[in-house]
Every structure is written in C-alpha cells, then in structure tokens.
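Most newcomers find our protein records easier to grasp once they have seen one. Read left to right, the backbone structure tokens trace the chain's path through space. Once this layout is familiar, the rest of the handout is easier to follow. The record below serves as our worked example for the rest of this section:


***
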Amino acid sequence: MSPAASPDRRLAGKVALVTGASANIGGALALGLAQAGAAVACNDLIPATATASTARLVEAGYDAMALPFDVTDHDAAAAAVNQVVDRWGHIDILVNNAVKFDQAGVLDMTVERFRRQVDIIVGGAFIMTKLVATAMIEQSGRGAIVNILSTAAWQGQAGNVGYSTAKSAMINFTRSVAMELAPHGIRVNALTPTATIPDEPALAARTQAAFDSLASAGRMDFAGLNPWERLPTPADYVAPLVFLCSEDSAMMTGTNLTVDGGALARYWPQIPARGPR
C-alpha cells in the first residue's frame, strides 16, 4: 500500500493481534493497522511467515512482534496473548484471520481433514476470542474484534465443503459473541472479502494463473463474473478493517462489511455489466 493510500492514525495507542498474518490478506491487514497507528502482533502457524510479516512492519518503522503458534492450541495461544499484554500493557483489537485452505468435497474429503480445517477457522477464533476478550475485560477497556469471513460463507460452493462450512459458521459466531460481549464494551464484527489478487507480484501471478485455469476448465470464473473490472487486492480491505476497529464504528456490532466488488449482490444467472477499475 502506498503512503498516499494509507489510512489516518485513528488507531494510535491501540494494540492489535492479527492471526494468520501471511503474505496475502493477513499481512496486508497487519500493515494497515500499523499504518493507522496500532502496535501489531503478527501470528502464523509457520514461524517464518510470522517473522516475515513482522519484519515488514518493523522495517517500515512500526512497532510489531512475531507470535508463531497454532490458534487451536489453547495453552500456546494463552501464552501469546500474555506476551502481547506484557509488552504493551493492553490489547485492544483482535483480527481472527487464521485459515487453512484445503479444497475438497464431501465425497472425497476425509473426516480428519474436515475437522482440522473447521478447527482452525472456527475453533481457533473461539480460543482467540475467549482469551483476548478476557484480557480486554480485565483491563477494563473497550475493544474491537473482527472476524474475516469469505464470500464462500454466504453461498454454496461445490468441492470446498470444509472452508465454506467453517466460514459460514463464523457469521453466527460473530452475532452470538457480539451479544455476549456488548455489556463489556467489546464490539464484534465481520469483514467479508472475496477471491483476491495478492499485492506481491510473484504471488499475484500464481494466483491469477490458478484463477485462469479454473475459468478455462469451466469450473469457476472469479474475474469474469465479478461486476467490477478487477478483483480486489488485500489493500482494498484495509480501510474497512480500520473503520471496524476504530470509534467511527462505535455503534456497529454483530454485523458484517462485505468488500467483494458486488459479487454477492449479483443475481446468479446475470452476466455482469462492468464497473470501472
């Protein structure tokens, strides 16, 4: 994201923890929160990924730390949350973005693979929300939790049963937890991205090639059926996330922001008329 496109510093003095802070969406969200003024803890299951995302922030002059751990491991997650509080004294923002991509259908996906995928997406969000909300309540401060969904949460997709099921479960997880935590001043909302072209050129090229292959095989045409002339990049999700984490959205909880170029709004047989880039 260029400095000219950076959000203002509405999150100055805040501390955020982003799970699944990979080179794609999670890493961009972590950078966006830092640009808005927050200190950021970057989590990933793969230590090198958490370290790389953190290094990107530190090299840009932001305050950040790496937290490599498995979000389904309660003890490891608890230790990580304690690390955040020990370093910065409080925690104000949680972004539940940890995910496992494992595309398979109900007829060919093993029970073990299904359970692991759902556990990372839903179980991990449960553990992280429980721990971070408890820390927020103990510090007697307000807080914001944002769950990253997917357009796959709102529509049926063949051959992607674990991901679609888990992301859909996060819709009502968001609502339920929002109602429980409202008396504590903690807001819980969701952000729905869609098929995304990464900002990093090499990763963008591989992703575009994969999308082109699916389209040529007649399976899915993400770009061709999106009402906009391009698919989103991770940078497109930063401003909506900062909004959900800031006091500008003080009266929003239990709801969702969709940033998908109109993909979910389109009536399914309609060939989309395109908007500008």
Summary: Confidence is low (pLDDT under 50) at residues 1-5. The longest strand covers residues 186-192. The chain has two domains: 10-196+233-258, 199-231.
